[in-house]
Write a structure and sequence with these properties.
The chain is of the alpha/beta class and about 325 residues long. The chain has one domain: Alpha-Beta Barrel (TIM Barrel). It has 10 helices and 10 strands. The strands form 2 sheets. Strands 3-4-5-6-7-8-9-10 form an 8-stranded parallel beta barrel, surrounded by 6 helices. Helix 2 links the parallel strand 4 and strand 5.
């Protein structure tokens, strides 16, 4: 497994991270805690050292499941979690961090991230200076080791940087969702900010497991994903059919090819979710994939057959 430096910090993270949104169960269906715990252990055993969760994933349940899985090897893994948009005032953020520390059964968090800007989803706007003041306090206290942001625009990222060191940006990024390339990716590379790409397999679409007639169960967040809407669905299916020969030639799955493409970009790691041990091990295997310049060019062209037809809104879901 390839490891990379996290921003300007002294933390080393695996190029493939395991994401635990689904472990919170809310907005997902068919998730089993025992299988999630087995998936976390399998991820670690196959080379993944870095695990990404959030207080908002099942109101802390995801953090608790992660701790149940690997608290016995806490010194060998990297915890990344997030504080939600409604807890960004100074005192709220300190309290949220304490809850996450308790959920994770640890006395420090390696990477603590602002999940969404404070005015997201109709929540009260909080000056970024106040939020960063709280994060810097936690860093000084040793309760967090580094600071990251998620779902921030370039302007919002630059504003946060005025008040402290930002080591990571977590945006949605996959072959089928590439808004970060427009101005954020070059900026992050230049400023040594690591990109942690979430939904690098387009919430499962890039695994090829969803056929032309697939329908999601009630309560599954993916039903709201713009890529799964009728006007895009056929276009994505056609792109997948063009990716399959490349995957076969590389002797990898479509999902592994998608992850390999993401981490081929400078300073970029991929956060991959998994429901069970087999999926986790398969994701980890993508950490060793290398792609030639011609393969990258071919994959790029196929991806643009989808992304060229998306609107200008960088939010992936029609919430």
């Amino acid at each position: 497994m390839l490891h990379r430096q996290l921003g300007k910090s002294d933390i080393q993270i695996s190029s493939i991270l395991m994401g635990l949104w689904q472990a919170g169960k809310e907005m997902w269906v068919g998730i089993d805690d025992k299988q999630t715990i087995a998936a976390v252990r399998a991820a670690y055993e196959t080379g993944i050292t870095t695990f990404d969760t959030a207080e908002a994933y099942g109101k802390g349940h995801s953090e608790q499941v992660l701790a149940s899985a690997i608290s016995d090897i806490r010194d060998k893994v990297i915890y990344a979690t997030k504080v939600f948009a409604n807890h960004l005032k100074y005192d709220q953020l300190l309290q949220a961090c304490e809850r996450s520390l308790k959920n994770l059964q640890t006395d420090y968090i390696d990477l603590y991230q602002i999940h969404w800007p404070s005015d997201s989803f109709g929540f009260e706007a909080v000056p970024i200076a106040e939020t960063m003041d709280a994060l810097n306090t936690l860093k000084e206290q040793g309760k967090i080791r580094s600071i990251g942001v998620s779902n921030f625009s370039r302007y919002q990222l630059q504003e946060a940087q005025r008040y402290g060191q930002i080591d990571s940006l977590q945006p949605p990024y996959s072959l089928f969702w590439r808004y970060v390339e427009k101005d954020l990716m070059p900026y992050c590379v230049e400023n040594k900010i690591t990109i942690l790409a979430y939904s690098p397999m387009a919430q499962g679409f890039l695994t090829g497991k969803f056929g032309p007639d697939h329908r999601f169960e009630k309560g599954d967040v993916r039903a709201k994903n713009k890529l799964f809407q009728p006007e895009m669905y056929d276009r994505v299916q056609q792109a997948l059919s063009r990716l399959e020969p490349i995957a076969r030639q590389k002797e990898v799955t479509l999902g592994q090819l998608a992850l390999g493409w993401v981490i081929s970009h400078s300073g970029t790691c991929a956060i991959a979710g998994a429901r069970n041990a087999d999926q986790a091990a398969g994701n980890a295997a993508a950490g060793t994939i290398t792609l030639t310049e011609q393969e990258l060019a071919d994959i790029d062209e196929i991806g643009r057959a989808v992304t060229d037809y998306l609107d200008d809104d960088p939010v992936m879901w029609n919430f």
